Amino acid sequence: MTDPAILTLQDSPLARKLSAFVRLAPADLLAVSDLHRRRRKFAVGSEMIYQGQTDQVAFVLASGWACSYKILPGGTRQIVDFQLPGDFLGLRSVLFRTSDHNVEPITPVQASEVTQRDLLSVFASTPRLAAAVLWAASRDEAMVVEHLVDLGRRSAAERMAHFLLELNARLRLVGMADRKGFACPLSQYLLADALGLSAVHVNRVLRELREEGLVTFQKGQVTFDDYDGLVEAASFDRAYLDHDGPLLI
Fold it and tell me: Which CATH class for the 140-241 domain?
């Protein structure tokens, strides 16, 4: 009979992601499985978490893509990041008294609701898993630093190349991409919002990267025509993602 813990590792993007930091034991895998017990479905554009929310709840994304963003007083929006399968949505919402950002799906998603009590219970019973979640949160903070560098110092072409390579690395961690490319549901308007560019500029940059033989982004598919060349063009160093194998055994 197949060990259900093995199925949990194979079927849970969260388990696959956390296993990049810690070699998950059966008890850890069962704890991850427990986090998935309240599975919900959300349609595109629905409100999963909203700025100012006081209910302390987060989600673990099982399938689909979401985005987190801030609404400014004038009503404009700034996308902070995109969330992929295996990511926590609104982890700060569990720890803060009031949520400081919004989260909504950009594709249909399935996500598991997680409360503060759920997390504290898991952390108390499986400290290794708690360390892995802290690693995931630290990696997300490192990505925010890179995004600040994107907006402040990288050219539009470097910004786009770096962003696509980062998405690729994140998706490869959960088995959804390889060096050839990945499926990507992001529109040029979403890319523009996240990268601080106009949609027209995004279109021009993508065309330039394609004409240089580096990457093609068409019909929801990112194809790396020259992966190593794109890495060089973006000065992409994936060390900040810390995906090179478990640190804790």
Answer: mainly alpha
Residues 90, 58: Cα–Cα separation, whole Å: 5
Q: Where are the domains of the chain?
A: 4-136, 140-241
117-151 pLDDT tens trace: 888 888 888 888 888 888 888 888 888 888 888 77
164, 12, 159, 27: which is closest to 88 by C-alpha? 12
**Is the Cβ–Cβ distance between 5 and 15 less than 8 Å?**
no
Which CATH superfamily, name and number, covers 4-136? Jelly Rolls (2.60.120.10)
The pLDDT tens digits for 74-115 are 878 889 899 999 998 888 777 777 788 889 999 999 999 988
Structure tokens given for 198: 């106009």
8 Å CB contact between 59 and 114: yes
Tell me the C-alpha distance between 126 and 200, whole Å. 49
Of 29, 22, 26, nearest in space to 8 by CA: 29
DSSP single-letter state for residue 108: -
Distances (CA, A) of 216 to 12, 99, 230: 30, 37, 11
- CB distance 58 to 52 below 8 Å: no
Q: Which H or E run contains 134?
A: helix 127-153
Contacts of 20 (CB under 8 A, 6+ apart): 173, 242, 243, 245, 246
Distance between terminal CA atoms of the chain?
26
Question: Between 127-153 and 156-173, two packed helices, what is the crossing angle to 10 degrees?
Answer: 160
